Amino acid sequence: MKLWIPGPTQVRPEILAECARTMIGHRSDAMAKLHDRIDPHLRLAFGLPAESRSSVAVHTCSATGLMEASLHGVGKRVLCVVNGSFSKRWAEIAQILGLETVVLKKAFGEAASPEEIDAALREKGPFDALTLVSNETSTGVRTPLEGVARVLRQHPNVLWLVDVVSYLAGMPVDFDTHGIDFAFAGSQKALALPPGITVFCVSPRYLERARKAKRPSYYLDAVRTLDGHVERKTPATPCIPLYFALAKQLEDISGGVTLPAAEQHLRGAAAWSARYEVHRRMQQRTERWAHKHGLALIPAPEHRSWTVACIKQGAFDVARLLAEVKQRGHTISNGYGDLKDISFRIGHMGDHTEDELESLLSAADEALAALAVKA
What does the alpha-carbon distance between residue 283 and residue 348 come to, in Å, rounded to a whole number? Predict the structure, then answer.
């Protein structure tokens, strides 16, 4: 059964095998070497240039944990862009933490424009931080980072916190270029690992502000976690099997292993860029398939995710479509939250190949034909 939901996504057998390695101590030299394997490739994943002063780290928690961790020590007033279930979750976490939270709300399926973000920052500020889910897994909406980056340059005191959960390893983050201060991603999306760990990147100015502030958490203190990663002394025992899997996957991506045969000679940043292009081609192919069947995608063309397609249901029952596709060896997903049963989602991300996507879409063709006959 091929897994095409928007996470957890399909995991290669070679990666699963890494999770079965002989256990090592988390204070051992072997663990320090594992960190050393991870870091240079993780910096490539976030698009950091060699001279960058930004830092990367790994934490054993879900991405939701890093949503909370990012908010400790940034200040008291936060502007949260809410345009889907996960951006809504981040705003709720900010409220639970007692932060003064202002919400810039958009309909699920829409993205906030740079102009709307700029107006909110000017008219309702001052703010200490802005939260943005760059790729709403619940709706397939991608918010282009370039436009928001231009706005944030006009608001130099606002830290920019970005959820790149289903963005990282499927689209270029370019952390420093865009002036991001804190970005994080779970392991189970475009990184194509089992769930359980989160990777993140922080800017020097984020660390400077957070170190001076009271951070009312131990396990979800991003500064403590980052320092432990740098010193090769994690504050708590990490999920070591997933560290092995992460190291292997990052090395494989940087080494061109996961690319189509004609591109497997690529290395480093070039290999990562080629991986992004595979994701974009899969997005475009899925869109062509939807249009062939008269189906509409929920996001506007300029806001469509390269990793998740969210498609309106059309004239059929979503649950029945999912069941028909599953009978043919593939699992796709219902809509999420407010979009459940009126849309379905295809997670064309991670290590899926374009040939595998053709197999899925062929199965979906057969499923739609079967539904039409039954109707």
Answer: 7
Two tokens at 308?
């998740």
Q: Is the dihedral of CA 47, 52, 55, 57 positive or negative?
A: positive
Q: Are 8 and 138 in contact (CB under 8 A)?
A: no
Residue 182: is its pLDDT beyond 90? yes
State mean pLDDT over 101-109: 96
**Assigned token pair, 361:** 């879409």
**Which own/partner contact pairs does 314-323 have at CB distance under 8 Å and 24+ positions apart?**
315/375, 316/368, 316/371, 316/375, 317/371, 318/342, 318/343, 318/344, 320/371, 321/364, 321/367, 321/368, 321/371
Per DSSP bridges, beta strands 129-133 and 159-163 are parallel
Task: Say whether pLDDT at 315 is over 90.
Answer: no
Angle (nearest 5°) at CA 61 between 59 and 67? 90
Where does the chain have alpha helices with state H?
13-18, 29-45, 63-71, 85-96, 114-124, 145-152, 204-212, 222-230, 240-254, 268-292, 318-327, 354-374
Query: What pTM does this model have?
Result: 0.97
Q: How many CB atoms lie within 10 A of CB 302?
A: 8
Q: CA-CA distance, 84 to 129, in Å (whole number)?
A: 19
Distance of alpha carbon 191 from alpha carbon 97, whole angstroms = 30
Express each pLDDT in 258-277 by its tens digit.
999 999 999 999 999 999 99
Provide the pLDDT for residue 338: 85
Nearest residue to 314 via CA among 326, 298, 325: 298
- Structural tokens at position 123: 């008219």
Query: For residue 346, what are its two tokens?
Result: 């295809």
The fraction of the chain above a pLDDT of 70, given in percent, is 99
Distance CA 132, CA 336 (A): 19
Could you give the CA distance from residue 321 to residue 303 in angstroms, rounded to a whole number? 25
Domains delineated in the chain? 2-6+266-374 (3.90.1150.10), 14-252 (3.40.640.10)
Mean pLDDT of the chain: 97
Least confident of 46-60, 110-124, 173-187, 361-375: 361-375
Residues 6+ apart with CB under 8 A from 369: none
